[in-house]
Design a protein that fits this description.
With 365 residues, this protein is α/β, with parallel strands linked by helices. The chain contains ten helices and 14 strands. One of its GO terms (molecular function) is DNA-binding transcription factor activity.
């Protein structure tokens, strides 16, 4: 496939250059008035259209720059919210509000099937729009890499990286936010902490959180033994995780997913363990799967609405050539005071040594 080297929407002029014909010839083929053309010329134009995935857009003829002010929104999984508390609702709200304020329309790409594709039969479906916003926790990075290679304008909502390929994205600053939560726990006297995450965490955003946790721990001169990283395969293991933490003298837990923190709270209640009197629990912004909570969790909130708006603004700025590509923006998370963390409990009586926590590994191993 061939991309427009200028990085914008493919035009008939670009198709003409690829096929080695005039723009007028391309227009004849696109509009079905190619009877006077030779078979060879007609096939060269059709081959160029097939190879690039060019989609004719009659509206664009009357708009400056060949754009139609249409932004695509491609989701790698189902994101339409069931209610206002849905994880993805604020992202979509921010996208819609910003697009409307800047005079652009939106086109949602929601292909059928369990695995949503950008390319179908070798063509990018996104060529219907001037550029696209990409959203989802489980992207097909091979397709994203191909889209970047072709020069199609897009902005990812969330931190994504491809080796050797720079991408435009707008991300929450999970590293700084997690480091701030860790420092707060350290200021409260906690010196044995553990980071918990489900299924090895949430991709690059999860890795950014871990980086912040480890950065704050190193700054406090705490080694891995005092600040382990534990992977949990399911929320049904919350009781075992809690028991392991208490057995090893851990006084504070940083939990990536709130759904896991909710399970830990239930395990605490079953064992008459008080949050935060006996153990502090901080939640690191991942609320997928949660439908309300009785606990006022401490930690931070992800600026989802702001991320959706910022990504939309960045894509439009790139389309209108106010910002170069690729470009990255980071948005600060909102601290949440909450009531689930507190001062460390009085150390063991008589100066007894606190047992060493297990090495950094999966709790289920």
């Amino acid at each position: 496939m061939t991309a427009n080297p200028r990085g914008g929407r493919l035009t008939q002029a670009e198709i003409a250059r690829i096929a080695g014909v005039s723009q007028a010839t391309v227009s004849l083929v696109v509009n079905g008035r190619d009877e006077a053309l030779t078979d060879d010329t007609r096939e060269r134009v059709r081959a160029a259209i097939e190879r690039t995935g060019y989609v004719a857009n009659p509206i664009a003829r009357v708009l400056a720059g060949g754009r139609n002010k249409l932004l695509g929104v491609h989701t790698f999984e189902k994101v339409f919210p069931l209610n206002g508390d849905d994880f993805y609702f604020p992202f979509l709200l921010g996208i819609e509000e910003e697009a409307e304020s800047l005079g652009y329309d939106l086109l949602m790409f929601t292909s059928s099937g369990e695995q949503r594709r950008i390319f179908v039969d070798g063509r990018s479906r996104l060529n219907l729009a001037d550029g696209a916003l990409l959203l989802g926790r489980t992207p097909d990075m091979a397709e994203v890499a191909e889209l970047a290679r072709l020069g199609y304008p897009f902005v990812f909502i969330g931190h994504r990286e491809i080796p050797g390929q720079a991408l435009s994205y707008v991300a929450a600053d999970y590293t700084d936010a997690t480091a701030a939560v860790t420092r707060r726990l350290l200021e409260l006297g906690h010196r044995r902490l553990a980071y918990l995450r489900l299924d090895a965490g949430g991709g690059q955003p999860g890795a950014d959180r871990v980086a912040g946790y480890q950065l704050a721990a190193r700054s406090a001169r705490l080694g891995p033994a005092a600040t382990p990283l534990w992977d949990v395969s399911g929320v049904d293991e919350a009781g075992a995780v809690l028991g392991d933490a208490l057995d090893h003298g851990i006084t504070a837990l940083l939990v990536e997913q709130q759904i896991l923190a909710e399970a830990l709270a239930a395990a605490c209640a079953a064992r008459s363990v008080s949050i935060p009197a006996d153990i502090s629990v901080a939640v690191l912004g991942d609320t997928i799967g949660v439908r309300g909570s009785e606990t006022d969790w401490s930690g931070f909130q992800v600026p989802k609405r702001e991320m959706g708006a910022a990504a939309t603004r960045l894509l439009i700025d790139q389309l209108e050539e106010r910002v170069s590509r690729p470009h990255v923006e980071s948005i600060a998370c909102r601290p949440v005071e909450g009531s689930s963390i507190g001062p460390v409990k009085t150390p063991l009586a008589g100066g007894a040594a606190v047992p060493e926590p297990r090495r950094n590994r999966s709790i289920t191993e």
